[in-house]
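Look over this today:
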Amino acid sequence: MKKKKEERRKKRHLRIRKKVSGTSTRPRLVVYRSEKHIYASLVNDEETPCKVIMTVSTLSAEFKKISEEKNVKSWTKEAAKIVGQLIAERAKKEGIEEVVFDRSGYKYIGRVKELADSARKGGLKF
């Protein structure tokens, strides 16, 4: 029986997670993408329950202010760019400059790529 798309993604994610982990100095930048929204989180895997340092998404208040000005829908590449910029700004304020990128099994195209590129432009080093 052929595996469904989500099952294949989860299998890729497990393969990636074997190799990628975040520390307090270099946290893991996790991307989650749904049909309508995109989420980016910084996670420290060294602590026993993994600690989420910060999260930015298309549902956050910061994003909504910017998107109303620019008239951007939450499921577009432009929205992913804005989320990438916001996570980079907030990480810089916390003193985080280097991260490990975890694409969560998604292919590195489209919204995932736009988010990563804008985070890089914002000053984060992968």
